[in-house]
Write a structure and sequence with these properties.
Layout (H helix, E strand, L loop, with lengths): L1 E6 L6 E6 L6 E6 L11 E7 L7 H11 L7 H9 L3 H4 L3 E2 L2 E6 L6
Parallel strand pairs: 1-6
Antiparallel strand pairs: 1-2, 3-4, 5-6
Length: 109
């Protein structure tokens, strides 16, 4: 995967192109309520993207919650959607086949 990292917060933007064979881990802690899957969705307890590379985590969580439909076992779908990196397209993180990541001034020092 081609990645463009841009450092913001300075007079001159610094772009770096990288190629990654895999993305840093995403850790999603969930609990399954007693009514899952018939009447209740999995509950997302915590979310963490290793290295803070994903700035739109709230949007990802919204999309995960929206995938659940009463009576459907959605947990496997969530895992596959994240594992395959298909979520990147739906979050507008990938543009023209390139994963774009902006880091603030002071990050990475």
């Amino acid at each position: 995967m081609d990645v463009l990292v841009t450092r913001s917060g300075s007079a001159e933007l610094q772009d770096h192109h990288l190629f990654l064979s895999s993305l840093p881990p995403i850790l999603l802690e969930i609990t399954l309520p007693p009514a899952y899957p018939l009447r209740a969705a999995p509950e997302i307890v915590s979310f963490h993207a290793s290295g803070s590379w994903m700035s739109r985590s709230g949007r990802l969580l919204e999309k995960l919650r929206a995938m659940w439909q009463p009576g459907e076992v959605t947990l496997f779908t969530w895992v596959e959607w994240i594992h395959s990196a298909d979520f990147l397209n739906s979050m507008d993180i990938i543009q023209d086949g390139v994963l774009r990541c902006v880091i603030g001034r002071g990050a990475g020092h």
